[in-house]
Specification:
With 247 residues, the protein is of the alpha/beta class. The chain is built from eleven helices and eleven strands. Residues 1-18 have low confidence and may be disordered.
């Protein structure tokens, strides 16, 4: 009896150590690199680790809607995040806009600067690499910009569509296409390409990367990661990669 009492007292006074969690983050492909650095910082700051899953925002949204297990989503599209919110896949009151970006035209190095309006002539018979223009945010924004600039009809037959923006970037990097439209952060991450033109931000809808915890995930672990995204260390990592960190 005395032994059981002592054991109970020991259990009561010994502090409980929180178990480490793996936070699964569905992340837009354009976040690759920057989010890897953020994930390393998050892991170093505590016991949790991050398992990022990178893909196009459309593919990620469909996976989440189909019940794929995860804790946090960072998409490159407000529209796809709206869809998830409307279907109840987001944890209430956790969504916010995290980052912004810019669209650019890239070419294999050495790349000669040009005016955006000269793109059809510069293409010649070549192809223009873009992410899927009906589904992937970088492709959607890119088509909007080309339409606004009056260039879409001229280049549409020559567009080579890729599953995500990093795949479009790869087509240019290996020389499979002479030009591509990607995010500025993608161009900065790939030394084999150079920026030849910057697309005016008012030529397309605002580029936003919303973040939110997922309703079916580990809410405590997700919140710890969301809190870390607001730290100076995380903001500096995103800014170093060329993203605009939103307040």
């Amino acid at each position: 009896m005395l032994f059981r009492l002592i054991l109970a007292l020991l259990i009561a006074v010994v502090p409980r150590v929180a178990s480490a969690d793996v936070v699964t983050v569905f992340a837009a492909a354009s976040l690759k690199g920057a989010l890897d650095v953020v994930a390393e910082g998050f892991a170093a700051s505590g016991d949790d680790t991050v398992r990022p899953i990178y893909a196009g925002s459309a593919a990620l949204a469909r996976q989440i809607a189909a019940g794929a297990p995860g804790d946090v989503a960072i998409l490159a599209s407000s529209d796809w995040m709206d869809t998830l919110e409307a279907s109840g896949d987001l944890a209430p009151d956790t969504r916010r806009d995290l980052l912004s970006n810019r669209l650019v035209v890239v070419a294999p190095v050495p790349a000669e600067p040009m005016r955006l309006e000269d793109l059809p002539k510069a293409l010649g018979t070549g192809r223009l690499a873009m992410a899927l223009v009906d589904a992937v945010p970088a492709g959607v924004y890119g088509r909007q910009a080309l339409r606004t600039s009056g260039l879409w009809d001229a280049v549409a037959p020559q567009v080579a569509q890729a599953d995500n923006v990093r795949a479009a970037l790869a087509l240019v990097a290996v020389g499979a296409t002479p030009y591509g439209i990607v995010y500025a952060t993608d161009a900065a991450a790939e030394p084999r390409v150079g920026i030849v033109a910057t697309i005016p931000p008012d030529a397309h809808d605002p580029i936003r990367y919303p973040v939110a915890a997922l309703a079916q995930g580990d809410s405590a672990a997700a919140q710890r990661f969301l809190d870390y995204l607001a730290t100076p260390a995380a903001k500096d990592a995103f800014a170093a990669a060329g993203f605009e960190v939103l307040p």
